[in-house]
Amino acid sequence: MPTVKINNVELYYEVKGEGEVLVFTHGASWDHRQWNPQVEELAKQYKTITWDVRGHGKSSLPKGKVDSEDFTKDLVGLLEYLNVKEAHLCGLSMGGHISLQTAVRHPERVKSLVLIGTPYTNSYNWFEKVFVPINRWSSIFIPMSVMASIQARTLSKFNPNNKQYIKETVSSIPLNRWVRIWHAVSKMESGNDLNKITCPSLILQGEYDSMTERQQREMAERIPRSKMIYIKDAHHATNLDNPVQVNQEIISHLSK
């Protein structure tokens, strides 16, 4: 079980394949296994790196407040440990935002981006400005088993196989840990930084994912050298709902 201590955290990671480096970062409350369908195919052509963000999966979480800036620092630290000077970064939701912020803060490290169902702000409109703080507060009272069941049911409509993975992964996070993680994730903001991204960026949007569509459309307009493509028959678990099209679009993006 490969782990490395970075920024006072034991980070779990897996490396497979050879070639240009492609790093996958999972969504909030999930883990590195989210990317199994991509690694299975893309490791044939690329060196793939998957990892568990601090507090998720097999990675640890120090006591105290979680700072979202540490997510990017952890990723860059992992690249340094693995002697990776430059990589393609792919992420979904929280993982996409971490990848985006890495491209902003460390442009020399990022060859290209693949952003899937990615928000760039948690205060996009009046609804989010009101709802997100309420959601952040209410998370204290919602058992992880309940949250896991809701997520699993909502995000397995296009691929029933998602249900077991999501339910198992989400429910494995202790509530007190999740509250600290979500407090940090739900405050991530990059609205003023989108025009700073200089690398080629592919934005993949699930056809039925209404959670991030408006933000992703705006990212496609504001990020230079970006392109947005819809993934058919997919919700927010886009890469799991339609892995075949997602893999095809990633390969096409990386081969340019």
Automatic annotation (TrEMBL):
- One Pfam family name from the record? Abhydrolase_1
Q: By what name is this protein known?
A: Alpha/beta fold hydrolase
Q: Which domain of life is it from?
A: Bacteria
PANTHER family assigned: AB HYDROLASE SUPERFAMILY PROTEIN YCLE, MONOACYLGLYCEROL LIPASE
Q: Does the keyword Ubl conjugation apply?
A: no
* Keywords for this protein: Hydrolase
Q: Which SUPFAM superfamilies match?
A: alpha/beta-Hydrolases
Residue ranges occupied by any AB hydrolase-1 domain in the UniProt entry: 21-243
Q: Which GO terms describe its molecular function?
A: hydrolase activity
